[in-house]
Amino acid sequence: MGFVAFCLNRFQATVINDIWFEICFFSGIAAMVASVSHFTPAELGISNQLLTVLGTVLGLVVSFRTSSAYERYQDGRKLWTAIQLMSRNLASLIWIHVPTERAAKPGEDPSRNRRLEAIIEKKSMINLVQAFGVSVKHFLRGEGGPFYEDLHPLISFLPRFAAHHQGVPEHESLPVWHGAPRREPSSAAATLNGGDLEKGVSRDDPVLLPARNPPASTIYDMLPFLILLKPLIQPIVRLIKHSNKEGERTNLLGRKRKVLVAEGNIPLEISLFLHSYYAFVLKQGWLAVAPANAFLNSLNSLQDAVANLERVRNTPIPFAYQAHLRMCMWMYLFLLPFQIYNAYGWLTIPATAFASFLLLGFLEIGQEIEDPFGYDMNDLDIDSICIAIGRELHEITAHPAPEPSSYIFTAENQPFAPADRRTAKDIVDDVAHEYHGADTGMGSVHRTLLANWREVNTLTRKK
């Protein structure tokens, strides 16, 4: 079963399912040409002089189309790499360079645990850094609102995204909140006062959607030619099940729609909070010049990456170019059997099928990868990228920022190995060694390091 599932998964990653009907159609044309020419007096074969000219031009245009789409695909991957790198850098700056030890201000309660408050503050802002990448993922997929399992828990404490944040007027909260689906209290969990649920879950809390929320596959995805019967099928479907037009995620051809219009700009909202935190730490004087510049550059790089991702998503290949190219391709494949029958005979049928598979495949690949942010098998796996960002940020916050002396001068560190296998603690404690001599110290250390280089150079160059 595992092998069968693997094969099916790989098959879905190909474009065969998208072009098989067209291949069958043009193969049928070839079969008609071959049968009529062979079994009747009519001769459908024509000169193939036009084939060479049009085939060369069409091949160049298809190559340009595929190259342009792949360039957009590569741009998307590079920009997501930039988001991953900047998120890592920003989290490191917040966790390491923003101080944890803070002096009490005049008039503050001296019993407050300022160290704990500082750790909570920094971890909350790093959660926002993680939420930024997740929100970009949903934004590029046209999934509006913050109500996703991988996003809402990270930003629910922000005023505009909180369900019951005190001091925030209703008209200033996020607009999508008012249309969010609410939880219904169950009879087992509801109390006598009729409102509160177990574990702090209220009926006013939103229903969170899965982190991956792809549009449901339809019969039109498997059998594209049924779109011709859609006007007859759709009324029957609506009689059986009411169709929510706002929730439909298909295009005019009945295929899964890849991009919807997102409501709100949550990445922008999150970046505003990160910028406000940057202004806060500068005002408190907690960052030196170099870390402060790196902080600001990382924030600007995140916004720059999002702007370029929007450019890739919102600037598709012009429709006129795509439509004209596809019509020319269809005309070429339609006329192909007439031009090659005199040379191939019955082989016209498989030759036309192969040519259709080759040319239509490249054309469909270009159309599929020009927007690499959806749920198709060949799209970028941005879910895994967001998970990797979260994993890296949690790893950063799992380690404190100790003093170097607490881990350098220990019994486990051998700084001068392999020439000197003694530990750092032994080297420091052995004051009688020539390393500690006023005249021999640095020269002896240099000789040890030179011996290190020679030994490592010899060992690594052995065949």
TrEMBL record:
Residues 172-206 are annotated as: Disordered. It comes from the Eukaryota. It is a multi-pass membrane protein. The chain crosses the membrane at residues 19-40, 46-64. GO terms for cellular component: plasma membrane. Coiled coil: none annotated. It is found in: Cell membrane. Its main location: membrane. GO terms for molecular function: chloride channel activity. InterPro entries: YneE/VCCN1/2-like (IPR044669). Pfam families: Bestrophin_2 (PF25539). Residues 196-206 have a biased composition (Basic and acidic residues). Signal peptide: none annotated. Keywords: Cell membrane, Ion transport, Membrane, Transmembrane, Transmembrane helix, Transport. This is UPF0187-domain-containing protein.
